[in-house]
Amino acid sequence: MDCRNWAEDSYRDSILQDRETLSRTVFRTAYAPNPNPNPNSDHLVTASSDGSIAAYSISACLEMGCGSSRNQNWLAAEPEFVIRGHDGPAYDVKFYDESLLLSCGDDGRIRGWKWKEILESEESEQGAKMKPVLDLVNPQHKGPWGALSPIPENNAIAVNSQSGSIYAAAGDSCAYCWDMEKSQVKMVFKGHLNYLHCIVSCASSSQIITGSEDGTARIWDCKSGKCIQVIIPEKEGTRASFPCVSCIALDSSESWMVCGKGQSLSLWNLPARECVSVARTQASVQDALFDENHILAVGAEPLLTRLNMNGDIISQIQCAPTSAFSVSLHPSGVTAVSGYGALVDMISQFGSHLCTFRCRGL
């Protein structure tokens, strides 16, 4: 090594950049809508802790492979599009009516971009300056002497294109219903005692379900704005170590709900309003979804867990993220697991690893 060309500042910058990359987190992934059933022609959209919203070509990522798991030398993927979506972490991404890409984040905003313009954009470089066509900001609360509260963050969003609504799970213990056409809040759902983690929309019954840090899930009537039922998932012993309801998912019929709370997953029959089964996990659950008659769950451990409706574990697959925050399912059966370290692990319907890549930051 030739010490005469030693650049200490460059070395320090590289160390800081490596540490920042390792601590970056992908909080949510979503498969882009595509009429072509071939997953290789699709895109995967990510929302990350640096506020970036990025779109990755699945075919390009599959060509990369899995890198080296022994040395954790994961390959970095180049996004086809990346933009600074939020000032602060971006927590969720959803598609509205297959034409609008929505995201929410710590800045209390919901922003939307036309998906077709993103695909046609030539600005794939860092910090592409594409202005959102939708920019909603949570209302502030008035305090004594006219003081305004900070803008509450949005931790999750849900959409109902039939009613033209976007629902936001906010940090002020409220859920907000936004009118897409008017870009205004048309209803506020109040009742939780702490901030909201998750929210889902039941289009068939005009209801939403929210999960909160207060340890409850609530079912709301979207017409009246009233809470029609409070669900308290089963506690772990006398006092739960992680009391919050971290995730909620519905099956395709909207008759079954899975609810993650601490180190447990509870399955509920919504028409009967009854808990059918409870499954225990080794770590706190952070996301879950239905895969036909099975449940996929990820959490604060590097595992993708598949369970049946009775709560029995069918399989567990080792994943790259040491803590996984999101699991997404493609119609072809390909699963994307993302989380700490800005890692995304794509797994086939047979349980084999198709590719693992690290998302690029801003």
From TrEMBL:
It comes from the Eukaryota. Signal peptide: none annotated. WD repeats lie at residues 83-114, 189-230. PROSITE patterns: WD_REPEATS_2, WD_REPEATS_REGION. Keywords: WD repeat. Belongs to the WD repeat THOC6 family. This is THO complex subunit 6-like isoform X1.
